[in-house]
């Protein structure tokens, strides 16, 4: 094993993208490597806790407290996301390229959505490992095809590939070289059982399962009343401004015998929920691993990280997907018997409480989750991911 090598991580700045990589970084640092991790100031404490050096940049993406963020129309979602991450490359590559030119790494590990990471590797002639935390696509399967979504450019704009080609050419790259660039390996930060058509993905795709580890930057949590059941509700850190839904949750579990832990994100002021009784905890964020260790049910937006954390903790889920990739995650979790989808159009307080109580009592779901839990605990996780990164260094 080669030790003491310099590895760069370049990633989108969202919690859902950063948190799954932190145990990988911690493992690489433990093995003696030097890691430089490019991220925003809001993630700096979490990244620094791994022992990595933070390379701070200013993002063009909306911050987590930005109340102006609106969810794109479903039909327009993929186009909007692609445009957003191309804009992020325009903003971040000029910040990162000089840094990694002067402190040149030996390998770049980059998130699939981080074009800047790919361009750093290309410009410096470096090998690279790509990772992603959402379901992978190939010629046999994709999220868009699975959901029947047509990806079309906005009126008056060229399609995404033409926009990307124009941008990279302006930065001095050959667009053909950018399109042809292949990482040495790809890390899929979820278990094989979540991937549709998993058998069609080659040996360069490594299904790591959940990469979890200590989060010393979070406060610890334990239930105020250990003998009362806990229900956790979280819709993630992006499209989470749904005060009406949160009020429904408070109404559903007030005086019910349940302890409700409600993570509302930074876009919602807890005061918007009105009076909150003592058996309800409301916070912008909660230490999710700690809460899931005590939870009987998890009401989730079906982000890949949350689904894996719930299965790993043996907790069944009610899903309320907010985006197409979450729709597919929710469908897959339901097919595996670990989750039941909620219908947001007809959701009432009584209906939510009834759904939680039915799920908590459903023996078939509990058995399905237990089977998946046993399987997910055999995945390689962060040590496997670190092995792949080290192999790419070799």
TrEMBL record:
GO terms for biological process: antibiotic biosynthetic process. CDD domains: GT1_Gtf-like. It comes from the Bacteria. Coiled coil: none annotated. It holds the Pfam family UDPGT. InterPro entries: Glycosyltransferase_28 (IPR050426), UDP_glucos_trans (IPR002213), UDPGT_MGT-like (IPR006326). GO terms for molecular function: hexosyltransferase activity; UDP-glycosyltransferase activity. Keywords: Transferase. The keyword Transferase applies. PANTHER family: STEROL 3-BETA-GLUCOSYLTRANSFERASE, STEROL 3-BETA-GLUCOSYLTRANSFERASE UGT80A2. Belongs to the UDP-glycosyltransferase family. This is UDP glycosyltransferase.
């Amino acid at each position: 094993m080669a030790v003491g090598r310099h590895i760069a991580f370049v990633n989108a700045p969202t919690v859902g993208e950063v948190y799954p990589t932190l145990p990988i970084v911690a493992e690489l640092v433990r093995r003696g490597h030097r890691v430089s991790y490019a991220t925003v100031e809001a993630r700096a404490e979490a990244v620094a806790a791994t022992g990595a050096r933070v390379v701070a940049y200013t993002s063009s993406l909306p911050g987590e407290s930005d109340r102006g963020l609106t969810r794109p129309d479903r039909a327009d979602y993929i186009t909007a996301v692609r445009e957003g991450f191309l804009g992020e490359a325009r903003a971040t590559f000029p910040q990162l390229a000089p840094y990694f030119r002067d402190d040149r790494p030996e390998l770049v590990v980059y998130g699939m959505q981080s074009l800047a990471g790919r361009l750093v590797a290309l410009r410096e002639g470096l090998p690279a490992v790509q990772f992603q935390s959402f379901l992978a696509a190939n010629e046999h399967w994709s999220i868009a095809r699975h959901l029947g979504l047509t990806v079309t450019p906005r009126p008056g704009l060229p399609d995404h590939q033409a926009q990307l080609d124009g941008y990279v050419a302006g930065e001095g790259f050959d667009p053909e070289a950018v399109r042809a660039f292949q990482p040495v390996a790809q890390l899929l930060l979820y278990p094989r059982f979540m991937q549709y058509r998993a058998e069609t993905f080659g040996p360069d795709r490594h299904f790591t399962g959940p990469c979890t580890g200590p989060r010393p930057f979070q406060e610890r949590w334990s239930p105020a009343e250990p003998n009362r059941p806990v229900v956790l509700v979280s819709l993630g850190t992006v499209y989470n401004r749904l005060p009406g839904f949160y009020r429904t949750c408070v109404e559903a579990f007030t005086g019910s015998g349940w302890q409700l832990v409600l993570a509302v994100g930074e876009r919602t002021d807890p005061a918007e929920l009105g009076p909150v009784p003592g058996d309800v905890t409301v916070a912008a964020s909660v230490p999710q691993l700690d809460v899931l260790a005590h939870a009987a049910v998890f009401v989730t937006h079906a982000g890949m990280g949350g689904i894996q954390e719930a299965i790993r903790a043996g907790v069944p889920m009610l899903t309320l997907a907010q985006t197409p990739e979450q729709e597919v995650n929710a469908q897959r979790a339901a097919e595996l018997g670990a989750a039941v989808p909620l219908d947001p159009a007809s959701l009432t307080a009584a209906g939510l409480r009834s759904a939680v109580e039915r799920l908590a009592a459903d023996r078939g779901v509990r058995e399905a989750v237990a089977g998946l839990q046993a399987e997910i605990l055999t995945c390689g996780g962060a040590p496997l991911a670190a092995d792949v990164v080290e192999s790419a260094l070799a």
